[in-house]
Design brief:
- The complex is a heterodimer of chains A (308) and B (529).
- Chain A is an all-alpha fold and 308 residues long.
- Helices cover 77% and strands 0% of the residues of chain A.
- In chain A, helix 4 runs antiparallel to helix 9, helix 7 packs across helix 9 and helix 9 runs antiparallel to helix 13.
- The longest helix of chain A has 36 residues.
- The termini of chain A are close together.
- Chain B folds into 2 domains: 298 residues, Periplasmic binding protein-like II (D-Maltodextrin-Binding Protein, domain 2, 3-Layer(aba) Sandwich), CATH 3.40.190; 219 residues, Dipeptide-binding Protein, Domain 3 (Dipeptide-binding Protein, domain 3, Roll), CATH 3.10.105.10.
- Classes of the chains: A mainly alpha (308), B alpha+beta (529).
- At the A-B interface, helix 4, helix 6, helix 12 and helix 13 of A face helix 1, helix 6, helix 12 and helix 13 of B.
Chain lengths: 308, 529
């Protein structure tokens, strides 16, 4: 197991460098530059040159990449050109909000999705199954932006149960979590349902029935456990999404977070900040996949042996 | 660790991450307070340091005081400077400072503060604001003299800007780089309690405040003791918050939301004169608009009243020259103002040899009169472009609208491939003409690529040779009249600034003083009991 994790971690190094080059080029090659965002009527062109020199924007792309990378490996993410603050501090300020919203949304979609999947699979082929599948399909096609506004209208404006927007206290988290989690429910529920149905057809399940165990115990303790392996993989893949996938939700509910930080930085072409955010999101996806593999290995001894 | 333990542990960790972090966040304050939503143009201000910042919000306007204040009619009023005078050559400015003013940290405000403060701008992002000052002399404890490198009547405008708020020297030096982020100490009516970039700022009343300017009724401590300034990026959310009383005021309301808000009984409005102008920008160096006749015909074909009516539902006013109408420099000789005259426009094109084609598009030497019209992606600019397109069609000019986001548009303008561009600026000073039309600023911000000998001459007189304010006004008028006579641009619209508030929560003075919603208005605002 240890060797397996170590191998995977070493493989991350080249991936990291490739991703960093892509991220760097993406933001530097799109039109626009950060200095325009700093200029106001009255600023002189000498000032423009001065700012360009200060942030190394007057050097070649290769040089700029090298400077950025050499600082990055020492843990220095640079300084935001527009905001004038260390990128690390800006990310640290926004990260807790993203983790909170994304984590809670992931948890919400996992619990609801697995439950819905189990119920649908248990009543496979009945109207209940069709009903749940239909609802899930509907949920996954509703845009989260619109759903967010609808939830605000019903629960905050008409019923007045929760605050409309902001990030003050846990009640302000309820609506964003639902709006962000609904899309994930569909995915989790469908994977759970299919995996449950397939597992239920296997021989050992028939044996369990023959042993005289109750259907409920078979479904929950044996079938679900097997079916969870692909579900965990799906959930792990969504870890990266936790950090950056809730941009529209953050926007509608006026919440801070990495998504809004990235969007604002992109609009202002704040190179160091965009690079750091994108790199972090990319690494989160890669690490999420790794975690998924490890968890899968931990849950399924056959895979563990095959891989190590 | 076995499987079961592993799963249990990882679930607990996930739960912890998901929910545990929530407990550390501040809960809503119980005491009565007012909540104001900042305008989207001020959103994301990263710090409250007037000397280094390039973007400031209402927050810094409330924490700091300035030497002078500007009103909505662009007149100047004393604040921390009780009075000022300039020598006739414009080379010396003497300011009498108000006595008895203290910073939030208890330090006194006096002549030494001003010397330190002006010195701080050297090498900062806002250096150009004080660039004309050679040095500051202390005459006595409460009198300072600015000795100038060159006459600069515009200094008075600079001193009234947000970027010339005066911070406490002691706190500023002690905090170093973190000044403006973790703390911000001024002499203003509110003290900073907490500040989260992009989220919200909490201010508490400065009970010692007794030096408000004559723009407000209340010169003492503010009536509202606790003020939260929030940033809500989505206008629909902000609208619902205002409607339900979650916030008391929206400092700026987008025009497309006005009709909806006007239907709400509990929502009150205050309008301020605009501080910006939307206009058509011509590329004068390549393409069809190098020819003044083409520029004139296009300018005369535009009916500004259609933009006012269709895009802005009547809010704001038509623009017939380049500057905001509250500036004295905007009062140009009426004969130079650009006004709708379609018949004359058609005649001009006829004379230039562009004659009507079969499909309504004019042609000359078998070439169709077809141009590209660029615009920004915001709704109001896209719709303005559509109106312009329709009006130019009536002239026999075919237009293709191309939309860019603002950052991309700026980059595209540098390439010089544009022909006609729907543009907008926000600036309440006539020196915007220098910014957009002086040859030294080609290709950007002078994306009109405007380079004209007479224009440069008039520019230099206005910018560098005006000795006092009246002379500056006269010189800028002449400069603008020349640009108008050359149809360097087509003015379209001067949008109003709309402020909305919840009548059940707040009492807002009838007239909003100052160029934007700021200190004077908020000092006079009260919460409803």
């Amino acid at each position: 197991m240890f060797l397996f994790i170590l191998k995977r971690l070493i493989l991350l190094v080249p991936v990291f460098f490739v991703v960093s080059v892509v991220v760097f080029l993406i933001i530097h090659l799109v039109p626009g530059n950060p200095i325009d965002n700093l200029m106001r009527a009255g600023s002189s062109s000498a000032q423009r040159v001065q700012i360009a020199a200060k942030y190394g924007l007057d050097r070649s792309l290769a040089e700029q990449y090298f400077v950025w990378m050499s600082r990055l490996v020492t843990g220095d993410l640079g300084t935001s050109i527009i905001q004038g603050r260390p990128v690390g501090a800006l990310i640290a300020q926004n990260l807790p909000y993203s983790l909170q919203l994304g984590g809670a949304a992931l948890l919400f979609s996992a619990l609801t999705g697995i439950t819905a999947g189990v119920v649908a699979a248990s009543f496979h082929g009945t109207r209940l199954d069709d009903g749940i599948s239909g609802l899930i399909l509907l949920g996954s096609t509703v845009p989260s932006f619109w759903l967010g506004l609808l939830l605000i209208l019903i629960f905050a404006v008409w019923l007045g149960w929760v605050p409309i927007s902001g990030a003050r206290g846990w009640t302000s988290l309820i609506l964003p979590v639902i709006a962000a989690g609904v899309g994930g429910i569909a995915l989790v529920a469908r994977v759970t349902r299919i995996a449950m149905i397939e597992t239920a057809r296997q021989d050992f399940v028939m044996l369990l029935h023959a042993k005289g165990l109750s259907p409920l115990v078979i479904q929950l303790r044996h079938v679900l456990r097997h079916a969870l392996v692909p579900v965990v993989t799906i959930l792990a893949l969504r870890i990266g999404w936790i950090l950056g996938g809730t941009v529209t939700i953050e926007y509608v509910f006026a919440r801070p977070g990495l998504g809004s930080l990235l969007i604002r930085a992109l609009n202002q072409r704040d190179y160091p900040l965009v690079q750091a955010c994108l790199l972090m999101l990319a690494m989160a996806v890669i690490l999420g996949t790794l975690i998924g593999d490890i968890v899968q290995a931990a849950m399924d001894p056959r895979q563990r042996q095959a891989r190590s | 660790m076995n499987r079961r333990e592993f799963l249990a542990t990882s679930s607990i960790v996930t739960l912890g991450i998901g929910l545990g972090l929530g407990s550390g966040l501040p809960a809503r304050a119980a005491e009565s307070e007012a909540v104001i939503v900042l305008s989207s143009s001020e959103a994301g201000a990263p710090n409250q340091d007037p000397i280094r910042a390039t973007l400031l919000s209402l927050v810094s306007n409330l924490i700091y005081d300035r030497l002078v204040e500007q009103d909505d009619d662009q007149s100047y009023h004393p604040h921390l400077a009780e009075s000022w005078e300039t020598t006739t050559d414009g080379m010396n400015w003497t300011f009498k400072l108000r006595q008895g003013v203290t910073f939030h940290d208890g330090e006194p405000f006096n002549a030494t503060t001003v010397v330190w403060w002006i010195g701080k701008y050297k090498g900062s992002a806002n250096e150009y604001m004080t660039a004309a000052i050679d040095h500051v002399e202390i005459v006595d404890d409460y009198t300072v003299r600015f000795v100038m490198k060159r006459p600069e009547p515009n200094l008075i405008f600079n001193l009234a800007q947000q970027f010339m708020g005066i911070p406490s020297p002691t706190s500023y030096e002690a905090a170093g780089d973190s000044y403006g982020v973790t703390e911000a100490i001024g002499t203003g009516p509110y003290k900073l309690e907490s500040f989260v970039v992009g989220q919200e700022t909490v201010l508490v009343a400065n009970e010692d405040y007794a030096w408000g300017s004559d723009l407000s009724e209340n010169r003492g401590a503010p009536h509202i003791k606790r003020l939260t300034l929030r940033e809500i990026p989505d206008s629909s959310t902000a609208f619902l918050e205002l409607k339900t009383g979650g916030v008391g005021m929206l400092s700026s309301v987008p025009n497309e939301f006005l009709p909806q808000l006007q239907k709400e009984k509990q929502v009150g409005f205050r309008n301020l004169p605009g501080i910006g102008v939307t206009y058509l920008n011509f590329n004068s160096q390549s393409g069809p608009f190098t020819d003044v006749i083409m520029r004139q015909a296009t300018a005369l074909a535009i009916d500004q009243s259609a933009v006012l009516k269709s895009v802005y539902t009547g809010a704001g006013q038509e623009a017939h020259q380049f500057l905001i109408s509250s500036l004295a420099e905007s009062k140009v000789d009426p004969q130079f103002e650009i006004r709708h005259d379609l018949d004359k426009a058609k005649k001009l094109l006829d004379q230039a040899g562009w004659t009507g084609g079969s499909d309504g598009v004019r042609t000359k030497d078998k070439k169709r009169l077809s141009i590209k019209l660029w615009t920004r992606s915001e709704t109001e600019f896209k719709r303005t472009a559509e109106i312009v397109q329709a009006q130019l069609k009536a002239l026999g000019m075919e237009t293709e609208i191309v939309t860019f986001d603002n950052t991309t548009l700026r980059d595209q303008l540098r390439k010089g491939e544009h022909e006609l561009v729907v543009s907008h600026y926000d600036w309440n000073n006539a020196d915007i003409l220098d910014w957009f039309y002086s040859a030294k600023n080609i290709p950007f911000p002078n994306s009109a690529m405007w380079n004209d000998v007479k224009s440069e001459e008039l520019h230099d007189i206005a910018m560098l040779q005006s000795k006092n304010w009246d002379e500056r006004v006269a010189n800028f008028k002449k400069y603008q009249e020349y640009l108008l006579s050359q149809f360097a641009f087509t003015p379209l619209h001067e949008p109003a600034q709309n402020t909305a508030y919840n009548k059940d929560l707040l009492e807002v003075p009838e007239r909003i003083r100052g160029p934007q919603l700021g200190q004077p208005t908020i000092l006079d605002m009260k919460t409803m009991q």
